[in-house]
Structures are given as C-alpha cells and as structure tokens.
Amino acid sequence: MKDLHAGYAEREILKGVSFTLGPDDFFAIIGPSGAGKSTLIRCVNRLVEPKSGQVLFNGVDLLKLCTPSCGCSAATSA
Q: What is the pTM of this model?
C-alpha cells in the first residue's frame, strides 16, 4: 500500500497510509473505533474507492483493475 488517501464525503479517514508486507509476513490491524481499520480493508477489497494512492499486490495496482461497478466491459466478459 502506497500513500493511500480515502474517506467518506468530505471526511478523510486514511491520510497517506503506506506499508509493505512480504510473502511470509503476518499482520493485524488494531486501533480504536473510528481509526480507519474497516476503511483500510474496504479499500483493499474495493468496497471503498480511495481518493488517491495505490494498493499493490505482486506489483499490480488493484485500483487500476476494472470492476463490474465501473461499467467496464472487461469486468463483465467471461
């Protein structure tokens, strides 16, 4: 994850979040209510589209992949 910014309406929840995980890394997301834990996960699984930044997996930016909700024909073709 690189310099991720995300939120809801005018409220920015994630402000420049960056981290790298290796193939054998184990991690946990902890923090108080409202800290952005759910928003972070929702950015990874694309339930929330970040305002900027990258979510990288094996060098591929997941945010640049087409999804059915974007209306892209590549996402709906089999």
A: 0.77
